[in-house]
């Protein structure tokens, strides 16, 4: 990677307030199939046809079979150097907030402390009755389905198509974007809203916006700096420059 611009390095060395938005690209570098990529089809079903409240109501066993398959994929892979570099970057900053569109929990596994999950976490389950949440594996499975102690079915702890994002999580994300000094957009297409609005808002409020991606996106012309390439290569190098 080429050396980042000196004004970016100066900001990061000056106890900056930093916000990060990550998308599917950083997880894909761990070998995890993307939601709509080559692994987007399963048993002749489209992911979009399984990740809905209607699909769960119609055939919860089928939906859980697919999500257990996806959980196995998450377990088979691991955080990559990009995830670990972000955890390291957090220790340098005055304030640091990581907002992710991913549901795999890799940022937490890599050591990031302040993580907001816009779309939930696939390794958690939430009761469709009482709302109780638990970690994957803590459910009471019976006849191929997980039940809560209230006897209602657990569902995957993710946001499905047709569902609203958590109002509290989304509000905090926008507050973070409004108040940060440096905003990183990493591995995200910058076309899925409301997440795509976050770097734009940060830019409008005067933040230094850094985009890290394999290819240009609608955000690129507005970014203060575009670092083209893999997050797992760029971020560890950037952290070295800061030290």
Overall average pLDDT:
92
Order of helices and strands: HEHEEHHHHEHEEEEEEHEHEEH
Output the CATH class name of the largest domain: Alpha Beta
Helix content: 25-40%
- Summing up helix and strand content along with how strands pair, one would put the structural category as alpha/beta
- Distance between the amino and carboxyl termini: 17 Å
CATH topology of the largest domain: Rossmann fold
Poorly predicted tracts of residues: none
| Radius of gyration from CA coordinates | 19 Å
Number of strands: 13
Q: In order across it, which strands form the biggest sheet?
A: 5-4-1-11-12-13
Number of helical runs? 10
Instruction: Name the CATH homologous superfamily of the largest domain.
Output: TPP-binding domain
Tally of domains: 2
Secondary-structure arrangement, i.e. CATH architecture of the largest domain: 3-Layer(aba) Sandwich
Strand share of the residues? 15-25%
3D shape: elongated
Biggest sheet descriptor: 6 strands, parallel
Describe the fold and architecture.
The chain is built from ten helices and 13 strands. With 243 residues, the protein is of the alpha/beta class. The protein folds into two domains: 1-32 and 79-119 and 165-243, TPP-binding domain (Rossmann fold, 3-Layer(aba) Sandwich); 35-76 and 125-158, SIR2/SIRT2 'Small Domain', CATH 3.30.1600.10. The protein has a six-stranded parallel β-sheet with strand order 5-4-1-11-12-13, with helices on both faces. It has a three-stranded antiparallel β-sheet with strand order 7-6-10, covered by helices on one side. Strand 2 and strand 3 form a beta hairpin. The two termini are 17 Å apart.
